[in-house]
């Protein structure tokens, strides 16, 4: 079937003797069709397409991988277009249901997908009740080989690692999604790709090399991959090995760089000042809280750090209180100043404690607020912190009770982000954001240089995200932005695209392929219509 492009040509008023009145003249534009060129692959050979990557290529969305999301994964969308110009079958390691989540031998290890709860993301089970996660890495792994080798959670070096998909290595050195792909063998993901002798590949890897550090608030539990190092250790060595191996037999391909992860809604949705004085759970406590922090603020003033003072507003939204490990730890100094204050024992007694508890309380206040400050607009908060702020930390309550405080008082000093500073895992400090930015820039230089040297198509995903975060991108009748829920580009987990977002990405990949291999997906009108793809999935999807 020919592709047609419609041109609107306004016609002038024709003077006919039978059409003298305005209502007799047809002023509607005549629609004429312009034939578009037939779709061609150019020099690209799509006959055997294999995709490697992480969750962004697996089809992950709304915090999970499930059948509907896999069907609309980025590489599967690309394969559908490739099939029009010689592309072959494209197989994926399909999950077992549309709930999402994973189990091992009947024990759940990952929860089902998120859904929209009216105000924001909520768990699927909070809407429809308990479900049985039927995708089980010990009981029902699909049989490969698979063209889609996207492994949620994979970093660059993981694609090279033997045993990354072996159940025997789980959970210490294996990825549950890789287990479903490898069939519980020791083969690496790269091995599985090469074994299929791809004529064309896509590789989008590296996001998790920085994302894991970001989603854990830079607390050190998931460090950034070193820029330099041998394959399997450093990013440059690992990425170079991937490209060299994939192109060794002449395969063509397309690669993408790493978006600045701190621009995604997972880090930009929760404000630094979410404490609302009209909320009675907080507002009614403001006077008491300010009285307590007033004592502490005097100490900060005495120690020469008045910028650490904490005060909540009764008329405007207030900042949360955070722990900032880049600050000098003044725990001992705070405890010493309070312990030496002649008014401090009376302050302790105001809580119903005996005067003998003054040293204990001084020490607890010192250790709690030694590296504390109010958050600023420069701090970023991970999306899950929205469900933590303002809640009572039971571990803190137990610890304070074991130190000798009554349960009620222990609870008052254990409110997250208010009386208990938010821990590092909930906050990305400016210094941590800078670490991420520096690593991302270095990784992206490596990706682009390696792609250029190998003659591969290159997608600037970083620039694309920057556009989404700064005004949005219009495609057809739709404008996509990086806003959570309303922006249409990002799913409810704030990290992964919606199906519509994946369609937008697929068009960008095809645009880059056109530029490198002379195909004409864009010129032939073969791009995806992003409006044909959903932005969310119903809780009742089975």
Describe the overall structure.
There is one protein chain. The protein is an alpha/beta fold. Helices cover 33% and strands 11% of the residues. The chain is built from 19 helices and 17 strands. A five-stranded parallel β-sheet has the order 8-3-9-10-15, with helices on both faces. The protein has a two-stranded antiparallel sheet with strand order 1-2. It starts with a strand and ends in a 25-residue tail after the last helix. The model is unreliable at 1-25 (pLDDT under 50).
Estimate the strand proportion.
5-15%
The multimeric state of the shown protein is single chain
Backbone CA Rg: 29 Å
- Terminal Cα separation, in Å? 35 Å
- Estimate the mean pLDDT confidence: 93
Strand order of the largest sheet: 8-3-9-10-15
Q: Which structural class matches the secondary elements?
A: alpha/beta
Main beta sheet: 5 strands, parallel
Q: Note the total helix count.
A: 19
**Total number of beta strands:** 17
Q: Helical proportion?
A: 25-40%
Poorly predicted sequence stretches spanning 5 or more consecutive residues:
1-25
């Amino acid at each position: 079937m020919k592709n047609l492009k419609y041109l609107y040509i306004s016609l002038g008023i024709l003077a006919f003797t039978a059409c003298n009145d305005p209502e007799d003249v047809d002023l509607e534009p005549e629609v004429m069709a312009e034939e578009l060129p037939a779709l061609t692959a150019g020099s690209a050979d799509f006959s055997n397409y294999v995709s490697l990557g992480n969750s962004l290529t697996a089809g992950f969305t709304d915090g999970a991988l499930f059948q509907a999301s896999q069907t609309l994964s980025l590489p599967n969308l690309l394969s559908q277009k490739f099939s029009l110009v010689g592309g072959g079958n494209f197989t994926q390691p399909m999950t077992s249901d549309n709930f999402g989540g994973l189990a091992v031998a009947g024990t759940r290890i990952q929860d089902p997908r998120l859904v929209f709860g009216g105000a924001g993301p909520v768990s699927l089970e909070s809407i429809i009740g308990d479900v049985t996660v039927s995708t089980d890495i010990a009981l029902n792994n699909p049989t490969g080989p698979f063209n889609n080798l996207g492994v949620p959670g994979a970093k660059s070096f993981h694609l090279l690692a033997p045993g990354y998909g072996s159940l025997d290595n789980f959970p210490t050195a294996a990825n549950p999604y890789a287990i479903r792909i490898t069939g519980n063998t020791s083969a690496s993901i790269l091995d599985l790709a090469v074994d299929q002798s791809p004529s064309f590949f896509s590789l989008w890897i590296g996001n998790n090399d920085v994302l894991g550090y970001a989603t854990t608030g830079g607390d050190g539990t998931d460090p950034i991959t070193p820029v330099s190092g041998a394959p399997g250790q450093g990013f440059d060595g690992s990425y170079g090995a991937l490209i060299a191996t994939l192109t060794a037999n002449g395969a063509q391909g397309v690669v993408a760089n790493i978006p600045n992860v701190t621009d995604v809604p997972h880090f930009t949705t929760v404000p630094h000042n979410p404490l609302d004085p009209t909320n009675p759970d907080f507002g009614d406590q403001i006077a008491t809280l300010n009285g307590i922090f007033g004592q502490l603020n005097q100490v900060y003033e005495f120690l020469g750090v008045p910028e650490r003072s904490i005060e909540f507003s009764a008329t405007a939204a207030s900042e949360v209180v955070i722990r900032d490990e880049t600050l000098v730890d003044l725990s001992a100094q705070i405890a010493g100043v309070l312990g030496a204050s002649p008014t401090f024992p009376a302050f302790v007694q105001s809580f119903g404690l005996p005067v003998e508890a003054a040293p204990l309380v001084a020490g607890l206040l010192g250790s709690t607020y030694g590296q504390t400050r109010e958050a600023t607009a420069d701090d970023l908060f991970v999306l899950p912190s929205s469900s933590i702020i303002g809640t009572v930390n039971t571990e803190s309550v137990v610890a304070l009770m074991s130190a000798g405080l009554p349960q009620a008082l222990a609870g008052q000093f254990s409110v997250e982000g208010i009386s208990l500073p938010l821990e590092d895992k909930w906050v990305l400090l400016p210094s941590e954001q800078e670490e991420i930015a520096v690593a991302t820039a270095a990784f992206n230089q490596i990706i682009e240089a390696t792609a250029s040297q190998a003659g591969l198509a290159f997608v600037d995903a970083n620039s694309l995200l920057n556009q989404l975060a700064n005004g949005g991108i219009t495609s057809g009748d739709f404008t996509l932005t990086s806003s959570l829920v309303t922006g249409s580009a990002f799913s409810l987990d704030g990290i992964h695209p919606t199906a519509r977002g994946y369609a937008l990405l697929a068009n960008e990949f095809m645009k880059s392929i056109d530029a490198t291999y002379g195909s004409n997906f864009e010129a032939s009108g073969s791009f995806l219509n992003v409006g044909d793809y959903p932005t969310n999935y119903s809780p009742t999807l089975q």
